[in-house]
Amino acid sequence: MTVIDIARAAGVSKSTVSLVLQSSPLVKEETRARVSEAIRDLGYVYNRGAAHLRQAKSKIIGIVVNDLTNSFFAELAVGMDMIVQSAGYVQFLAHAGEDVERQRELINSMREHGIAGLILSPARGTSAADLKPLADSGLPVVVVVRNVAGTRVSSLLSDNGAGARDAVRHLVGLGHRRIAFAGGFPDTQVFAERVAGYRDGLAEAGIAVDEALVIGSAPSRAGGAAAVERMLAGDGDAPTAALCFNDAVAFGVCDGLRARRLEPGVDFSVVGFDDVIEARTAVPALTTVAVDPQRMGQRAAQLLFKQINAGTAEPETIRTPVRLVVRQSTAAPARSRELS
Amino acid sequence: MTVIDIARAAGVSKSTVSLVLQSSPLVKEETRARVSEAIRDLGYVYNRGAAHLRQAKSKIIGIVVNDLTNSFFAELAVGMDMIVQSAGYVQFLAHAGEDVERQRELINSMREHGIAGLILSPARGTSAADLKPLADSGLPVVVVVRNVAGTRVSSLLSDNGAGARDAVRHLVGLGHRRIAFAGGFPDTQVFAERVAGYRDGLAEAGIAVDEALVIGSAPSRAGGAAAVERMLAGDGDAPTAALCFNDAVAFGVCDGLRARRLEPGVDFSVVGFDDVIEARTAVPALTTVAVDPQRMGQRAAQLLFKQINAGTAEPETIRTPVRLVVRQSTAAPARSRELS
DNA sequence: TGACAATTTTGGAACGATCTAATTGAGTGC
DNA sequence: GCACTCAATTAGATCGTTCCAAAATTGTCA
Question: N or C of chain A: less Cβ packing under 10 Å?
Fold first, then answer.
């Protein structure tokens, strides 16, 4: 079932059918109707591969995401999808499972399929060397969420430092002086940025950083629960609040607090990061730094299309602003309330 | 940069290069080495589209998922991905956003790209008519999670009825008599199946179903919280336990109970459905019916490959078993504990 | 009516791979 | 030395589309 069959059925040449398929204004209305009918009747399926072979420009955008089971990244992908769709492209979405080797294979496979551009949310441990061949190939590429230092591709990152700093300011403003940073893998760029913002916030308030209060863990609910143990196990001056690496950790911290008969938002303040959907409906509703992954995905896709349309553009790096959302999980420290 | 360039560089014909590319045993070791080197040196990228044009069989599996931001479906997709990858295929994963029209476009687009098979987790409201052209085209198709009645394609569904019945048995075994069913959209197949299992379970125990205790809502955390209000608002005999449509609803029910100063797992028993990752680490850990979406995704992909390899197979429907996981959110009703 | 322009249509050469059948060259047995 | 087999290589057709240049058709006007 090809254009030739359609042509035969409609009594025209294959060239005319092709023109109808790309809705060219050259073809007479009556002819178009006849051809369209034949296409419908015969149940013809357009062969995009063949078209692409001749045209050399495809309508496929490759998207490689480190972990789709993490709802932050799933929302990111959905945001991209919106823009990709509305631009008349389709996407090749793949899950790298935080595996650099797997990610490399996926990117290769996508290039073999002739994608028009690629958005990459890199797996942990991705180095500039991994992206070198990509950058050299001239394929438009946008890296999101996690920065890959030393590579000449565009990137779209959230302003983690400012977000963490704002969160600390909020806690300090409530009267907290002993503030922990909980969760996240210390060897990641995002962790480094958020902790840097945390340090800035404390420095601003003239509070010395206690390294014992910076507690790494898996960036998950279980990791957060584990971090609480380490945080409160110390014999010394326990913290009264924690800025968490992300919302999952924050929920874990709440779980851990409850297990110790401490009520989050009353006995201990908790701030998350990301503002995932559950943050609003959880009890207590989570104070968190809203990153809006869906919005970020949209902007990343827009940046990619800008590059695709501009031909060969200079790589640019964008920091998207974040916003502190204050809800019920933060309050003045218990002691100061007793005093007042 | 094509096979011809490689051929020229290596001093062979394009046919030989092609043979090397498909690692044919026909080509001499020395020649293969020379060609492989040229491929590496020139940074050649294989054009899978062109190959597919000639070969007529692609290595792409299309996967259309109703909602990727729902972690149940994200995990399902990741499970499929594992099998697809290890079979040497790549996947075209798309998010339909619960929009039937959008889903239709996605499926068409995938067919135009020449997929070898399709796995569909249908958007709400998908009818047999939507799938008719697909089924007729002879493309191997597997429908997962949500059944589409009256269509001749293979499907893989979880045994919702048995799961709900087991959950009710468990609650009855603990001594509960007033058991609610909370959450979910009543117009969906999955809701119908789970409620049917719930009714069976009650019937088995000789308990009459009180229709006022079957409470629909959005299948989300917020929906669960809302359902609690309706459940406990009645003047009459309040329930002592609830079987929830899914885990998100169950978490919402826990939130709603706390807001009323009732402790889930102590004052009121809650059973979820799906066993999402957070169910294990939440406080209290959730008793739930484990569906194991990742496993289900794997089985769906296996079923699809079975069809692809068998050529034209008879459509088959598989119900995957589910398993009740008892954790801390269920206990004997408060009253019976007082008596003992 | 015929020349010319404008509108539609069309044949055939691409695109980059694979496949088939044919060719080359070396080795073997008589 | 010849016919034969076997291994390795290759030319050329082919897949389904788009593009180009040219051809066919239609309309306009002196």
Answer: C
For nucleotide D15, give the residue with the nearest CA to its C1': B54
Spatial distance between the Cα atoms of B211 and B177, rounded to a whole number of angstroms: 14
What does the block give as tokens for B313?
């197979």
Please list, residue by residue across B199-232, b when 16 or more beta carbons sit within 10 angstroms of its beta carbon and e when fewer do. Answer: bbbbeeeebeeeeebbbbbbbbbbbbbbbbebbe
Q: Is the dihedral of CA B79, B80, B83, B89 positive or negative?
A: negative
| Residues B278, A113: C-beta atoms closer than 8 Å | no
pTM value is: 0.89
For residue A322 the two structure tokens come to: 């974040």
User: Is the pLDDT score of B339 beyond 70?
Assistant: no
pLDDT tens-digit series, residues B163-203: 999 999 999 999 999 999 999 999 999 999 999 999 999 99
Question: For B20-63, how does the pLDDT look when each residue is reduced to its tens digit (9 = 90+)?
Answer: 999 999 999 999 999 999 999 999 999 999 999 999 889 999 99
**Which residues are within 8 A (CB) of B105 and not within 5 positions of it... i.e. 6 or more apart?**
none
Q: CA-CA distance, A19 to A27, in Å (whole number)? A: 7
pLDDT at A54: 95
Beta-sheet pairing, B179-182 with B241-244 = parallel
What's the pLDDT score for residue B276? 87
User: Closest nt to B13 (CA→C1')?
Assistant: D10
Chain B 37-96 contacts with nucleic strand D (CB below 7 A): 50, 53-54, 56
Percent of chain B residues topping a pLDDT of 70: 97
Spacing of B54 CA from D12 C1' in Å: 15
Instruction: Name the residue with higher pLDDT: A209 or B276.
Output: A209
Say yes or no for a CB contact (<8 Å) between B113 and A255: no
Q: Across all residues in chain A, what is the average pLDDT?
A: 93
Contact status of B221 with chain A (Cβ, < 8 Å): yes
3-state secondary structure B100-156: HHHHHHHHHHHHHCCCCEEEEECCCCCCHHHHHHHHHHCCCEEEECCCCCCCCCEEE
What gap in Å lies between CA B225 and CA B219, rounded to an integer? 11
Helix/strand/coil for B264: strand
In chain B, which residues have their Cβ closer than 8 Å to the Cβ of A48? 112-114
> Residue ranges of the alpha helices (H) in chain A?
3-10, 14-21, 29-42, 48-55, 71-86, 100-112, 128-137, 160-174, 189-204, 221-233, 247-259, 278-281, 293-310, 334-339
Residues B260 and B233: their CA atoms lie apart, in Å, by: 11
**Residues A93 and A77: beta-carbon distance below 8 Å:** yes
Nearest CA in chain A to B282: A255
Shortest alpha-carbon distance between residue A45 and chain B (Å): 6
The spacing between the Cα labelled CA in A27 and the C1' in C1, in angstroms, equals 30
Q: Which residue of A has its CA nearest to B107?
A: A90
Q: What is the distance of C-alpha B108 from the center of its chain? A: 21
Q: How confident is the model at residue A338 (pLDDT cuts 50, 70, 90)?
A: low
Residue B218: strand, helix, or coil: coil
Find which of B40, B46, B69 to mutate to test the A interface (most A CBs within 10 Å of its CB): B69
Q: Tell me A182's DSSP state.
A: E
What is the predicted pLDDT for the residue at B211? 95
Which residues of chain A are within 8 Å of residue B285 when distances are taken between CB atoms?
Answer: none
Rg over alpha carbons for chain A, rounded to the nearest Å, is 26
